[in-house]
Specification:
Blueprint lengths: L14 E6 L5 H13 L3 E6 L1 H4 L4 H8 L10 H6 L2 H6 L3 E7 L1 H8 L6 H8 L4 E5 L3 H5 L1 H12 L3 E2 L3 E4 L5 E5 L3 H11 L9 E6 L4 E4 L2 E3 L6 H12 L3 E6 L11 E4 L3 H12 L4 E4 L6 E3 L18 E3 L3 H8 L4 E8 L3 H11 L4 E6 L10 E8 L2 E9 H21 L3
Bound molecules: cytidine-5'-triphosphate.
């Protein structure tokens, strides 16, 4: 057997409505159809008008062995299976590629074509694999729409980074069909966190001073990203709220970019609704600059004074919002590790805290780490290892404590 041959997951008897929307990545949906069928799924393709400009329905009909649905008002198709019936048929509605337009229409609850109507009329899970130009993806309108969908429980797969059809390079490439299939299989799978929604914050925040300067910290985001990937691997649906980093989004993880602590707070409160696990791995700036200058500050004086104001504590606000949420935090300390970490565990009403030494070349922006993990009434040492390995062990511990708490009498 060729070593590179991926294992084919078992999707036998899984029914999937595959929504294909307009974009150059529509051609990859043909391969995705094939891959889903190969895993045993039944696939009903629904194409938007835009998608048909890129690939013909005949292609999908030939691959899926079923007539493709394209219209809400097609009497013959409706007679065979009405759109309400079709909305109830699948185990999953998967939209790949999902254009910026369909994401906006879903976020606003429009029902002006078959695919959007199905999404509105279904009580089945929905997953989307966005594909668009990097600027369209980064646009706050798209990010807000994605956050809305995530808060409603839609799984967002990718997008990935890389070269785009438009010649640009950045985030917005549709996740590869095999990875999409893997994400679909995982959500039907039996990992210890399958069916559990988790939100992870990662990276530094940036607090602006003027249009060109900001205050930040040395966090690289590596630990938070590794943890997001590790939770995903245990079957969780993971949303990563990320400060500025140069890291690639882990496969199958939905990433929402933030800059300031206030933006992180807004995104955290929104995405934590409907989640069961929240992990605060971000190095949130404790203070922001009072009165950010509209113009670049000139060096007119010998001294410059900035007044800083306390930022809200994100993890505490998330805990306040939902007492049932499993909340895990990090404690970055330069002295009295256990004492300070346990202090934060109690003060912030956390379920678990992972403490590490920082400063003098330790932890920040390194590829390895060691953690002391504490929870009410217990603790465990995770000895020095790569951040990926530490993240794997921490994710397993989070899953263990999450289930222990769920099993404990209230
Ligand atoms: N945290 C947060 N919001 C803040 C500050 C911290 O959500 N404004 C979270 C971090 O993500 C981390 C935990 O709180 O999970 C502890 O962060 P840390 O910087 O160690 O502690 P602080 O609360 O900032 O306390 P101090 O700086 O006094 O040590």
């Amino acid at each position: 057997m060729n070593a590179a041959t991926p294992t084919v997951p078992n999707l036998a008897e899984r029914r999937i409505v595959l929504g294909v929307t307009g974009g150059i990545a529509a051609y990859k949906a043909a391969d995705l159809t094939r891959r889903l069928l190969e895993a045993g799924a039944e696939v009903q393709v629904v194409m938007t008008a835009g998608a048909q400009e890129f690939v013909t329905p005949l292609t999908f009909q030939a691959l899926s062995g079923r007539p493709v649905r394209t219209s809400l008002l097609d009497p013959a198709a409706e007679a065979a299976m009405g759109h309400i019936e079709l909305a109830r048929w699948p185990d999953l509605i998967l939209i790949a590629p999902a254009s910026a337009d369909v994401i906006a229409r879903l976020a606003h609850g429009l029902a002006d074509d078959l695919l959007s109507t199905l999404c509105l009329a279904t009580d089945k899970p929905i997953a989307i694999a966005p594909a668009m130009n990097r600027l369209m993806w980064a646009n706050p309108a798209t990010q807000a729409n994605v956050a809305t969908l995530v808060a409603r429980g839609v799984q967002v797969i990718g997008p990935g980074a890389g070269a785009q059809a438009c010649g640009e390079i950045g985030d917005g490439r549709m996740t590869e069909p095999l990875q999409i299939r893997e994400a679909v299989a995982q959500r039907f799978g039996h990992g210890p966190l399958s069916g559990v929604k988790a939100v992870v914050t990662a990276g530094p925040t940036r607090e602006p001073i003027d249009p060109v300067r900001f205050i930040t910290n040395r966090s690289s985001g590596k630990m938070g990203y590794a943890l997001a990937a590790a939770l995903r691997a245990l079957g969780a649906e993971v949303t990563l709220l990320s400060g500025p980093t140069s890291l690639a989004t882990p496969a199958g993880v939905t990433r929402i970019d933030i800059e300031t602590a206030q933006e992180l707070l807004d995104a955290a409160l929104q995405t934590a609704r409907g989640a069961q696990i929240f992990v605060g791995a971000a190095a949130v700036a404790d203070y922001r600059v009072d009165g950010v200058a509209d113009e670049k500050i000139k060096k007119n004086d010998a001294t410059l004074q900035l007044t800083l104001h306390r930022n809200p504590d994100v993890i505490s606000a998330v805990r306040e919002q939902d007492a049932r949420l499993f909340v895990a935090g990090f404690a970055a300390e330069t002295e009295k590790l256990e004492e300070h970490a346990r202090g934060k565990l109690t003060r912030k009403k956390l379920d678990l805290i992972a403490a590490n030494w920082v400063g003098r070349g330790r932890a920040f922006d390194r590829d390895d780490n060691a953690l002391s993990v504490y929870w009410p009434g217990g603790g465990r040492e995770l000895p020095h290892a790569s951040k990926t390995e530490i993240a794997r062990q921490l994710a397993a511990l989070i899953a263990e404590r999450f289930h222990a708490r769920a099993a404990a009498p209230a």
